[in-house]
Amino acid sequence: MSELADQPGREASDEVMIRLRGVRNAFGDNVIHNQLDLDIRRGEILGLIGGSGSGKSVLLKSIIGLLRPVAGQIEVGGMNALAEDPKAREALERRWGVMFQDGALFTSLTVLENVLVPIHEHQREVPEAQAERLARLKIALAALPADAGAKYPSELSGGMRKRAAVARALALDPQILFFDEPTAGLDPISAAEFDQLVLTLSRSLGLTVVVITHDLDTLYTICDRVAVLGQKRILTVGPLAEVEAHPDPWIQQYFQGPRGRAAAQAQTRQAPDRNSPPQAH
Amino acid sequence: MTAAQQADFAWVDRDGLCLRLQGPWQLSQLGPLWSRLQGRSGVDRVDGSALAGLDTAGAMAVLELLASPDELPELSGFREADRALLELVQQRSQAATPTRKRRTFGVLPLLARVGAAVERAWLQGRTLLGFIGLVLETCAQLFTGRRRLRLTSAVHHMEQAGLDAVPIVCLLSFLVGAVVAYLGATVLADFGAQVFTVELVNFSFLREFGVLLTAILVAGRSGSAFTAEIGAMKSGQEIDAIRTLGMDPIELLVLPRMLALLLMLPVLSFLAMLSGMLGGGLVGILELDISPGLYLTRMQETTELRHLWVGLIKAPVFAFLIAVVGCLEGLKVAGSAASVGTHTTSSVVQTIFLVILVDALFAIFFMKVGL
Questions:
Q1: Distance between B37 CA and the closest CA of chain A, angstroms
Q2: What local confidence, expressed as pLDDT, does residue A7 receive?
Q3: In this predicted model, what pLDDT tens digit does every residue of A221-232 receive, in sequence order?
Q4: A193 burial via Cβ count (<10 Å: 0-12, 13-18, 19+)
C-alpha cells in the first residue's frame, strides 16, 4: 500500500492500480452495470469504449466516488474506494485528477486561480509564491502559453479550456488521471495534439490514465489497452490487436466500420509499432 | 534507500554546496519544508541517493534552490525516472512569469468609472425602451394575424406565476394586514381614535399594499424565473435555434409570459387586498375590542369603491414592467452560467425598483387629481 505512494513508475507494469469487482450500478429498475470486473494497471493508458448509453460515464463516476455502486468493490491503489471515512476519502481524492467533458472550470476564476483552488484547499502549508509558481508549472505542463493563466475560461477556445482543466487536474500531483471524452469537439489537429499531451504526461509523470473516448484515433495513438463496455459488463479488455479480434458483433462493427478501418490504416502508416502491446517496449 | 516518513534534506559541503535529499519529496509530504527552504539558494550539486519519491512539486522545490535556475546542477544518485522529471520541470518552468494585472487608483479612474456607470445606465434604459417598443409591435401584430397567440404556453405560465403564487401572496398580505392593524391601533389609541384602524387597514391595502406587496412578490418569484428560464435557453443556444427555425422568440417566449402576468397580477392583487383586510379585521375584532358588527359597519360606511380601482389599475402596469424586464434580462444573458445568475439578480433589482418608482408616481398623480 505505502510503496505505491512512494514512486510513480514510468512504464506500464502489471501491478493493479484500480481494481473493480462485481460492481453493480442501477437507477431504480434500470440496471447499468452488473457483475462488472476490471483491473487497471499502474502506469498504463486504458481506453474505455462502449456504445452511447452503455454507462461509461457512470462507471467513471463510481470509480471517483461521485456515485455509489449498489454492490461490488472498488479498490484504488490498494485502498477501498468506497470507504466512507472522510479522512480516507480525502487521501483517495488526492490520488486522482479528473478532466470532465467540457473542462468544468470555475467560470468566475481565471485559469491560474482555477489551478490554485485545489492547492490552497489541500496544501495550506505551501507559501503563496510557491503555490503560484507550482500552478504556473502545471499550466506549462498542460502545454498552455503562460499568458493563458490570467484569462477567464470564457476567453479560451475549447481546446485550451480542456488543457486548463488538465492543469487543474494535475494540481495536486495525482497518480491517476481520468479523462471523459478528451478530444470531443476538437478539430483534428487539436485532437492529435491533445492525444500527444496525454501520452507525454502519462509517460513523463508516470501517471495511470483512464480515457473514456469515442475517438478511434485516440485509441490507436495512445492507449496501451482498451476495455469495451457492453451488456452491462466489461466485454473484453486487452491490447488493441486482441480487442479488435474479439468476435462480439458490436466490437466487430466498431473496428471494422469505415471509420475504424481508416483510423487503423492511418496508424499503421504512421507508426507501425504502436499496435503491439506495451510490454514489448 | 532509507524509508524516511518525512521529506528532509541535509547540506554536504564538498567543494561547493551539495544538497542531499532525503525521504519523499512529494507535495503532500513537503509541508514543513517550505518554510525551511525559504530564502536558500546557491546549490550547485544535488545528491538524490536517499530520495524516496519525487513529484513535480518536489522537483520545483529543488530547482528553486539552485545557483543558476537555467541549467541543471550536477546530479548524483538519482534514479533515471526522477532525473527525467527534474529535467522536464526545469524545461517547463522556464516559461516566463507573466505580469499581474494592476489596479489603478486616483481621481481620474474614479471619474471614468462613474462615467462608465452612467453610460451603462443610459444604455440600459434605451435598450429597455427599445424592447418595450418591440414587444408592443409584436403584440399589435397579434391582432393583424401576422403573429399567433401561444395559448398553451400562456396558460402554463398563468398557473406557474398566478395560481401557484396564491398561498404565499395571501399569507404574506394577511400577516402584513395584522401588523398594520396593531401598529395603527397603538398609535391611534393615544387619541382615542382606535376605531380609525378600520380605515387605516382598508385604505392602505386597497390603494397601496395589496398591489405593491403582490408586485414585489411576483417580481421576486416569477420575474426572476423568467430571466433564469430564458437565460438558460439563451446560453444553450436555444434562442438561436428558435430564430433559425423561422420563429420569433418574442412571440414564443415573451408574449405568453407577459399575457399571463397581465391577467394574473390583478387577480393576485385582489386576493392580497382581501387577505390583508381580513388580517387587519381579525386583529381589530379579537385584540382591539372593536365588535365585528361595528367593524363591518364602519368598513361599509367609510370605504369607497374608488380605492379598489385606484389599487387595481396599477396591477397591469406592474405586470407589464415585471414581464418586460424579466424577459429582457434573460435575453441579455451571454455565455456562461455565471451570466444567468448576474442577470437574474439584476432583473429582480430592476423590477422592484421600477415597481416602487411607478407606484410613487401613481400616488402623486392620484393625489393631484383628487382620487
A1: 11
A2: 41
A3: 888 899 998 888
A4: middle
Any idea which residue has 380605515 for its cell?
B199
A149 at B interface, C-beta within 8 A: yes
The verdict on ipTM greater than 0.90 is no
Is residue B185 exposed (0-12), middle (13-18) or buried (19+ Cβ within 10 Å)? buried
Report d(CA B126, CA A266) in Å as an integer: 58
Interface with B, mutate which of A1, A6, A197 (most B CBs under 10 A) = A6
* Three cell numbers written together for A280: 514489448
Q: How many residues does chain A have?
A: 281
Q: Give yes or no for a contact between B158 and B260, defined as CB atoms under 8 angstroms apart.
A: yes
A38 sits in which H/E element: strand A30-41
Q: Is B145 left (phi over 0), alpha (psi -120 to 50) or beta?
A: left
Looking at the complex, does the CB of residue A161 fall below 8 Å from at least one CB of chain B? no
CA B194 from chain centre, in angstroms, equals: 43
- Helix, coil or strand: residue A24: strand
Angstrom distance (rounded) from CA A60 to CA A9: 23
Q: Residue A226 belongs to what H/E stretch?
A: strand A225-230
Q: For residue A280, what pLDDT is reported?
A: 38
Cα–Cα distance list, A273 to A195, A221, A261, A279 (Å): 17, 11, 17, 12
CB atoms within 10 A of CB B301: 10
Q: Give the SS3 label for residue A234.
A: strand
How far is residue B367's CA from residue B216's CA, in Å, rounded to a whole number?
23
| No. of helices (H) and no. of strands (E), chain A | 11, 10
Place of cell 500527444: A196
- Cα B167 to Cα B176: distance, rounded to the nearest angstrom: 14
Nearest CA in chain B to A207: B55
Contact across the interface for A138 and B64, Cβ inside 8 Å = no
Nearest to A137 among B56, B98, B338 (CB): B56
- Give the integer Cα–Cα distance in Å for B231 and B339: 8
Q: Among all chains, which residue has been given the C-alpha cell 544538497?
A: B19
A197-224: pLDDT as tens digits: 888 888 888 889 999 988 888 888 888 8
Task: Output the average pLDDT for chain B.
Answer: 86
Query: Locate cell 519519491: which residue?
Result: B53
Number of A–B residue contacts, CB under 8 Å: 94
> CB-based contact (8 Å) between B130 and chain A?
no
CB contact under 8 A, B84 and A8: no
Residue B1: per-residue pLDDT: 39
| ∠ CA A172-A177-A182, rounded to 5° | 125
List the single residue in B with minimal CA-CA distance to A108: B338
Mean pLDDT of B180-203: 88
* Between residues B239 and B63, the one the model is more confident about: B239
Count of CB atoms situated within 10 Å of the CB of B236: 10
Sheet architecture: strand order including A176-180: A96-99, A176-180, A208-212, A45-50, A225-230, A233-238
* Residue whose grid cell is 425598483: B353
